[in-house]
Amino acid sequence: MSRFERQHILPGFGREGQEKLSQARVLVVGAGGLGCPALLHLAAAGVGTIGIADGDSVSESNLNRQTLFGQNDIGKPKAETAANGLKQKYPDIQFDIFPNYLTTENAFEIIKHYDLVLDGSDNFGTRYMINDACVLLKKPLIMGAIYQYEGQVAVFNYGEAPINYRDIYPVPPRDNEIPNCSETGVLGVLPGIIGTLQAAETIKLISGLGKSLTNKILFYNLKSCSFYEVEVKPNPVSGKNIPENEETFRKTNYNLTCGLAENISWEKALDWFRNLESSMLIDIRELNEEPGFGLKGIKKIPMDKLAENPGHLEQVEHVLLFCKSGQRSLKLAEQLKQKFPEKKIFSVEGGILHPSSPLKTENHGT
Q1: Would the N or C end of the chain have less CB density within 10 A of its end CB?
Q2: CA–CA separation, 328 vs 134, rounded Å?
Q3: What is the rounded average pLDDT for all residues in the chain?
Q4: SS (H, E, C) 199-239
Q5: Each residue of 23-49: pLDDT tens digit?
Q6: 36 and 97 both lie in a single domain
């Protein structure tokens, strides 16, 4: 008996729907709280090729919601770790691993090879970037988002007169309008529900089953166990905010933060570290993350530990944080800036993977 037998006998789906899944190519952006359940259900359902794009590594605070990972995975790259675990369960599925964040430099080249994109990202800049790339490439986009006890799901860029993310939010919010980008608290079951709904919409869209969430947003409230839908029409002004072509897309700046912390270049960070008396350069990666960073005087304090006990910074004026790619360090910088608004707290842009990092490129791990 095939492992898809229960899907084969399902009225309205059958072997024809299964064949469509087996031929499909889906890109999942982010192997986090939304991406983990989505990836699991897409692979279990038999989607033939699944791409996983995530430049982050597993940290202990991820484990309450990122259910593809466990304690032994802390410090490991998420994209590769998720793919390896799923391969053991479903060896018939092809997994494409992209152990880097999507940027304007690589998004087009990656997305164009897939039938649709499932967005499991957790920040505004990435959402706008993925949306615009999908609009330009004419790729359907399955959006999911959560905030505390609420979540939402939508299908963009699909069907007649399709909507996209900018039809709801034409322009990115200003710095003082962005909700706290640091961890606002979440029960792991909420992204599990929303990510599963994203997978369901993906399977429906591929197979042609039922009615997709086109031109509407589905809202879910965990505390009241309630769902409701809101219809959305194309916004005439949204198109003017989308880059005209790939060239202008590559020049667009999608870097959005909470307006509390800033990036700093390696050149400037090292200059401050060496020449300013009240400065501290901190490697916030997990203790077992490679490659090592042997710069004299550097502090090694994992992100979770520094967030829980920031007392190390009481006597420091300039705090310079770095990680592998700059994503975790920017998030932590946002948190610490709220606690120490008088201090100069920066995230080193691009982390150790940046070309100007003191580490040699050939020694960079994934």
Answers
A1: N
A2: 26
A3: 88
A4: HHHHHHHHHCCCCCCECEEEEEECCCCEEEEEECCCCCCHH
A5: 999 999 999 999 999 999 999 999 999
A6: yes
